[in-house]
């Protein structure tokens, strides 16, 4: 016990941890051997280790889910444990919200809630859930070390040994950041594992950092989030991909980049070995990636386009391919990948020259959002990638050029800038226009009582907007009006596009601020699926030499 | 061996690693037991493991130095190993440059070079050293995972066990990021340790990630970089500290922050328990920090001002105090601190509302730089802290207020903004004005053939400039001219300050853009050393209850 001169104790966190550990030991008895707890006693473990009001980090990642622990949380007695403050990267499973519905938790800080966005909005409206804030991944991890430090972390790993060392394998994702913040602040880490083994393939998390290990009855869930079937890529997406490569990748010599998720970016990946190669760009663009192991990138890797890929997480079915391509991926001595969302986000933010991704809505200032009324979707990693790293100081040709374009003629000291590209078709599904006067985010902000509208990527941070109609370079715009007309000028037949000032748009085109496919020297007739290096899942498997093993739902042959 | 259909091998990195390991085994024989190599054979180990042209990360941190390995590098035979591409966070030791002088290495990517800045510039001019780029810490770490992945990493740890597990203890700093990037890309990690023990206090780096361990003849060097003797704080610095607290900390309710290094910020830390407490600010400001364990913060911690501190590295002499204040610091189960520069920089960038720090020169746009002619000093972490995190989405009162002030009346969607404060006396030592027409950085850029001038913090990113004359709020400036006059208006009797437009400055004062001490309700007569909660090193020791044990050079009583 430490008591300072003023009589205050300064080791309350550790003392409290000790109490929790003792409660667990008393309740579990022989059901806990060393750090290994029997799965059937998980409720007892949680009841003894948790206290009402605790900040609890539950590993709900972009892909990997601590689903057994999530389900166990939902079944706690709210009379004994309630008012938990949940920290989750991603609200992916129904259980993540059942915890609130069942009265176990009341407050939530998170990053992304894709599949649960509608139900989340309902729970907020019903007063069952109070949102602290919506984050991007890196800022949520950052807060784990500042003002949102977890008391208890519930994580998922591939395997543990009997000492409690963890093997997270290819799907490491958020685990290191979560565990470090918890273990070194007097918190308790509980890991569900798929198996307990004598010798781990490698140690990812040292046993010293782990409180308890439970072998779950079924392996933890993983979502193959980054798999796109090339069969669904349209000619229009190929046209946009051609414009991206010629108008941006080649123009700015983009060597280090991140791709957002979706068919638009999959199309780009799939025409690297065909279209980009035909332009002589092999070795000149796209050599270094911060990216999940996208199956659509296999043909480009095989063609020697890609030097390195560091990944946020892994992708189901890519394990053997990654193992056999250890020159490209970050692979451990055991042959399986090491991913790390915190470090890959850091790399994507600071070491990449370009981010390109899709969105649902763009307004006249270029602000974009995936939030729509009644859905609290969150941001994930896109805003971190899709923003200039103002703390970056090293130069590259593309970064310098973007900076020059943005600052030319202004009274500013020279500086580089990140390329942030929004790629959208002017109409999305159900003929909803992608361009709008006013983002739905405004309405959502009112509904959910947010301080400011949940913008995914701010117009100020966007360098280019790319649609099937053309490419708008916002870096070159000098007034609000120019920027508005640049947006309208690529917004096609949407009301926003139809509302353009034709003379001004033609003037922007003369100045190279708007470029049509023909301005880029692109023959639209070539924009067909013939350019795809793989036209379907089977082609991807073939390109991988049979190493890629797609999940069942993608096996359509 | 993996050969794909196209006949290319994809495991060259691992195969090459294997060759290096075999060379080492053949040369070392019994001098290598498991992973432990005899210190006397370090040259043999490096000669067999390194190849000319390798990218080599040498752990030169802000504080901890792999000095034994650095010295060993300088003694290699340049006929056998040359053209190394060195990656270092900090060029701190003469050996770091001897490696170049001796013809072992030729290229350098780094972050900070404080003590070696002059010699670095000379080596560049002599063509003995080619600089890739100057980075901030986080972007250099990011590049380790993208296009600057090390083949060999030479790191320092407190202890190892016989398996090769590492204990980095309080001085973890950069080690986790360096080791992860190297170990998972077929690279080789060599660690110098102070001792080899049977059982480590805790495992910080798993043995699976480590290639070789060498017990160095002397403990690795650590610089107590963040210790400031309160005896050297002046009344003027106390006046500025009062303005900071009343004009910024209280005004924006700053709860999460980072302090740059120096006496200016030490003064702020030392009047928290006196002046800030007298304003009723305890519990309302400064509760959460991303900060090295500054001894000057001891009185504020003891007074209950501080809830949590996450640290980039540790500080010599603070070990026992930290151990006894585990509620405040991030401490492992062994009682010693866990620092982590990558995670703390992440936290500082994304989870802090304010950065305040000093600089050497500020120009009329508010751009600041520590670069002066003939010195290539680098940036360290300041630009990362001293910039808006554009990927941040969670709100706080101060962040929202700064964003409102910056955007009010502009055609922009609401957004928050980070507070970035530059605190300087108008004249620095030798009566050099801190305010200049043109930064020396321009001259240095020409000398060293840099693409753009090495600006530390860009004027666009600065929210406030604070001098003994007053506080300028740049967020509220609406034109280049207003900004220039706001800078001049706090530049005192420097030529820049004397060149002010007096009417315009008075107008800015009327609008609250410039605030004098009296405008802030600060009685200058109270700005004396009497406000310091500790007036000298002995007071700091006393405040710590005898737990703080300053390094010898600071023991002046």
From TrEMBL, chains A, B:
Domain of life: Bacteria
MF (Gene Ontology): transferase activity
One Pfam entry name: Mal_decarbox_Al
InterPro entries hit by this protein: MadA (IPR005777), NagB/RpiA_transferase-like (IPR037171)
PANTHER family to which the protein is assigned, alphabetical: ACETATE COA-TRANSFERASE YDIF, MALONATE DECARBOXYLASE ALPHA SUBUNIT
NCBIfam families tied to this protein: mdcA (TIGR01110)
Protein name: Malonate decarboxylase, alpha subunit
Organism per entry: Collimonas arenae
